[in-house]
Structure formats: structure tokens, C-alpha cells
Amino acid sequence: MDFLELSKKRFATRKFSQETISKEDLNYIMESVRMAPSAVNRQPWKFVIVQSGTAKEKLLQCYDREWFRSAPLYIICLKDTMSNWIRPFDNKAHGDIDLAIAIEHLCLAATERGLGTCWVCNYDPARLSQLFPTPGYEAVAIIPLGHIAPDCPHKEKQRKPLEEITEYI
């Protein structure tokens, strides 16, 4: 499929089947993440793949929703707070931007493989850092990953018209 079709196909999946994600699919997705660009090629990120039952139960202490529980695997996306590039003109750190690019690579690669994802940012960050300590890193998002359940709710995308978001000068 072409990129526009892929972009249109990706949606926030909120119901997963319990089908296992193949090692090949997971490796493909994470290799796509690894190829994401970042400012000054710093690659200020780390991805914790949560798949064991014990780790999943810990993660649910940070964000516990019924739909979230249905995912067979989660990826905690962390930015390296010490090595992200900082723009010298205004001291703007670009770690969140760089990580967002990598996360969207993850989501689009998963879509290409027929899998679903959802950006989750409404979790308890203090609890997450307590349960999954990673010094020098800050969690930015949790991505549930899995096969989309046949009865997964899905609305057609509502996007602003192109004319409203672009300006030609």
C-alpha cells in the first residue's frame, strides 16, 4: 500500500485479540523504529517491551482500562533526558519530538503488518517510573500492540480540511 493509504488505515485500536505477535513482526516493527530520524542523530530513546504477565500487571497499576488490558504486548517509550538535542537559540529540548517520530514509525509499521496500536499518554508517570525505573530516561507514551479484534470499535477519521491547516505565502 502507498503511504497515504497506510496513514488512512492506521487508527487508535482499543480492542485486541489474544493472538500472539510473531517474532518476525515485532522485529520488523522495532527495526522500523530504529530507522527513525532524530535531531543531530542523537536517537534519544529506549523502548521497553512489556510481555511477561508480571510486567503487564505492574504496568496496569499505571493505567488500567478494560480495553488496554486486552493487548498482548506493550511498549513503554522513553526519552533519554541527557542526550536529546537542545536548540541553542532558545534551549528547546527535542527529545519529545524525536521520540514522537520514532513512535509513529512504530505505529505505521504495525499497521503495515496488520496490527493495531494506540498512543497512551494518560498514565501515572510517577508510578510508572517507580515500577519501571530507568535512570536518565522519562516515559513519554505507552503503546499497546496486537492483532485488532474483529469487533474493535472504529470510527471514520475526522480531520480538518487541507485548506484549514495549510497556508501558502
Automatic annotation (TrEMBL):
Coiled coil: none annotated. GO terms for molecular function: oxidoreductase activity. Gene3D superfamilies: NADH Oxidase. Its cofactor is FMN. Transmembrane segments: none annotated. InterPro entries: Nitroreductase (IPR029479), Nitroreductase-like (IPR000415). The keyword Flavoprotein applies. It comes from the Bacteria. It holds the Pfam family Nitroreductase. PANTHER family: NAD(P)H NITROREDUCTASE YDGI-RELATED (PTHR43673), NITROREDUCTASE (PTHR43673:SF2). Belongs to the nitroreductase family. This is Nitroreductase family protein. It comes from Segatella oris C735.
